[in-house]
Amino acid sequence: MIEERRRPKIVVMGGGTGLPVILRNLKGRDVDITAVVTVADDGGSSGIIRDYVNVVPPGDIRNVVVSLSQLSPIILQLFQYRFDSNDQFFAGHALGNLVIAALSEMKNGIFEAVQELSDIMQVDGHIYPVANEPLELNAEFTDGTKLTGESEITAAHKLIKHVWVTSSQHHDVAPKAVDEVIEAIMDADQIVLGPGSLFTSILPNLMISNVGEALRETTAEVVYICNIMTQKGETEKFTDADHVRVLNQHLQQNVIDTVLVNTKKVPDEYIDYQRWNEMSRQVVHDFAGLRQQGCRVISADFLKLRDNGAFHNGELVVNELMNLLGQVNMKQFEGR
């Protein structure tokens, strides 16, 4: 009897626009994908829906569902459609956000809602909201002041000292990730963090206590995709080693095993800073600082220039992730 080959398991954690870039390029590869999505967003259509119906903000989840869905482009366009009418309620809302809000009420929670939606949208992989309740992101800045709420923290444009999450519904109870998230982390071959805003997209997931504990204990290779540009206020003047240092300090251990760093220069005067007003400057490479933290460094051209902004080339990044997975599988085979 021929034993069925086990597909490598990869867990991608984050939020914002960076997560779908990786997932779109992972879809169709010979891997078992789990996307762990932050539930601490409180801006835009997501924030308005959260205020009205008290559900987890759906924006990041909507984009992840679309990135892994195998449905036709027209259905995905409909799901992503954002109303531009003058209706006081619908204007500015994405249709998918309303669907997720409705399913959340029907299923009495975001986790079961997303599992149902994944079936409807024919998702290739697993999508797990990190918690089954809306969370609030909190930050203390280097000047000692504190703020709550992702949009408020981002808008402050101040240097952040550290962040943490709290339940928006049960302030006296520490939030916990759902069991499926922890099981995915412990069973993974590779865990990918980023790309995305360091303090407001990546760390909100990691600051849930049982997620941090799982990352410290897992035998999976933890890969961090370092941002190409610094972000105004959040990471101004940060090197790539500074990004990794913040992650390790928040997790109270050197958790990052491998870091992917872009070394292709962004052309001078290319960035439209009025359009991409969160971008500050290109992240400086600090190889020595990275090595001091015990992580393997893979530096290459991961740059994609579009719309006068600097972004990750998802295909090149995923090719490197697949190479790393191949090395892990080879070691496991040799160890038998």
Automatic annotation (TrEMBL):
Annotated transmembrane regions: none
Gene3D superfamilies: CofD-like domains (3.40.50.10680)
InterPro entries xrefs: CofD, CofD-like_dom_sf, Gluconeogen_factor
The keyword Lipid biosynthesis appears for this protein: no
Localization annotation: Cytoplasm
Major localization class: cytoplasm
Pfam families: CofD
Gene Ontology MF term list: LPPG:FO 2-phospho-L-lactate transferase activity
Domain of life: Bacteria
UniProt keyword terms in alphabetical order: Cytoplasm
Gene Ontology terms: biological process: regulation of cell shape
Annotated Gene Ontology cellular component terms: cytoplasm
Job of this protein: Required for morphogenesis under gluconeogenic growth conditions.
Family that this chain belongs to: Belongs to the gluconeogenesis factor family.
Protein name: Putative gluconeogenesis factor
Organism: Secundilactobacillus folii
